[in-house]
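Sorry to interrupt, but I need a hand with the structure work. Go ahead and set the record down below:
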Amino acid sequence: MSGGKCVRRSTSFVLLSLMLGVAPGALRAQGAPQADPQMDDGEEIVVTGQPQRGAVPGKIEPEQQLSGADVRALGVTSISELLTELSPQTNGSPVILLNGKRISSFSEISDLPSEAVARVDILPEQVALSYGYAATQKVVNIVLRQRFRAETVDLRGGTTTDGGRDNGQAEGGFLRIRGDNRFTLNVKYRRAAQLLESERDILNTGASRLTAITRGAEIDPALSALAGAIVTQTGVPASAATDLPTLASFVPGATTSDAVDLTPYRTLSPATENFSANATLARAWAACRRRSTGGWNCSTAIRCKACRGPR
C-alpha cells in the first residue's frame, strides 16, 4: 500500500507540473487580439472642432492673432490707437470687422477701450471679397469680451512757454457689453484760447511802416526829439519812392493814426471750442425659421411669440 501511495503522489506532482507549464501559454493564446480582415489601415479619421468665438467664417486662417494680453502690452488706450499701432502689419487702412461681422462705420467702435478686446485676428486680403470689399485691403477682426463694463474720465490741460494759447480737454465714456448686446456713450469737450500777435513779439511792419527792432523802444532819439515824443513806429513818407527821405520827413507819420499798434488785437490763431458726443446701441435680434418637420428654430435665447419657447 505504501508503494501505491507513492505512485499516486508522483502522478499528482506530474499533473500539477504540466498544468503550471501549459496554462500560461494557453491563456496568452486566448488573450491575443485577433486581426480583423475587414479593417482598412488607410481609413481616415476626421475630428470636427468648434471654431473660436467671433471667428471669421471660412477656411482661411489668420496671418497673425493677438490675445488680450498682447493688445494691452502695446500700451494703447482705444481701438483707434490700436489700429494705428498695427498699421505696419495691415498695410494702411484695413477692413474692420467686429466679432466676425460688418459694422456700420468705424466711429461705432473707435472709442472703445483696449481692455474690452479679447482677441484680434489679422487676415489676408482675399477675405475682404466675402464681405463685399475689394481684395486690396487686409481684414482686421476685433473680438470683444462677452461681459465688460467700464466708466472712463480723461482730463488734459496745456499751455505754451511763451504765453498765450492755453488749452484744455475733458472726455468721458461709458461702455457695457453683454454678449452680442453693446451700449457705448462718449462725450468730448475741447477749448483753446486765442493767440495774439503781441504774445509772439510780432512787429507791426508793413510796406509803409517803420518800427523799432525792440518792442516799445524808440526808433531814433533824434526822430523823437523832432516829434516831441518817443517814436516807436512811423509811416514811411511817400517821397521815399523818388528821393532819399530826411529824418524830418518821418515826423508826420509818427503822429497819424496809422502809427497805432494793432498787434494786441490781431490773432495768429483764433479761440476754438468743440463739443462732440457719440452714442451706440447694438442689440442682437432673433433670427427664426420654420422647420420642415414643424415648429420654429431660433438662433438666440430670447423668447418670442413665433418661437413659443426659448430660442
